[in-house]
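Sanity check

After download, print the first record. It should look like this:
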Amino acid sequence: MRGEIVCADCGLVVDASALVSDRGQRGSKEDTGREARGWGPVISPLMPDKGLFSEIGVPTRDFQGNSLSRHASLKFYHLRKLNHRLRAARTHQRNLVVALGELNRLAGVLGLSREVKESATYIYRRALEHKATRGKKIVALVAASVYAACRQCHVPRTMKEIIAHSKATKIEVGRAYTLLARELKLGLKPVEPRDYLVRFTQDLNLSKEVRHKVLELLEQVEQVYSTSGVLPNGILATIIYIASNLMGEPRSQDRIAAVANVTPVTIRNHYKELLDLLGLPKNLTNPQARGTTPTALPLPRPTVLEETSITAGH
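Expected structure tokens:
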């Protein structure tokens, strides 16, 4: 089998062609002492029936190599049709077929790892078992499950990003997430600004020095300012704007706002308040205020006029 090696902190795919051996995972040693052998497909929670289904092929010959008669071919056709119907005979099975298809699509657009997809599938299956899906749109519950899985796996994704790629509205996803958190007792911790630190600084092409400065300023702010109830990516975007100016790697408010998925107005609203808390000058965007002097432009060379000699005639 081929798998992926994914960073647990930021979700970066380190190796997309890692070889994974599943030999012996599905088998067991027999009394005769023979080694266990891997057999059958690997159980996958990303499939509605977890991969434990019977597939009837399209045979053209029998075990002796003779061609099948028309009556036998029609018999296999009806068996395949009946098997396909039985796989989605129950309501929750049909629900899972639609939901897991939408989940795989959403996870593929967002570039989420297999760990997040399996966690989201587990949350949705639990909601289905608790009958919390009645009267709710499947797409809204899937988006809420993906957001909850991202928070469980510490993958920095905002709800606005997930809603942007979902087929449900913001209100529907918000209500579905509240329902899942209450009915399943997920007990998720509030999102902290530091959860988005690595991702935002990488998207802005900032150095490690700026990242450490952002973390230092964030710790100072958290000691004197309560970030609970405040948009975490908005606070972090403002601190990144301050730190990038302090370290001589300035980024515009529009660019930081686009990466953090907030508006430039949000950064401007927090900017003056955080400068007062950190004891920094108001004119931080001025090169002299952040401790650096602007590079002096070379002065234009003076034009040397050649002296013309006037020869007096005798």
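If your output differs, re-run the checksum step. Summary of this record's structure: DSSP finds eleven helices and two strands in the chain.
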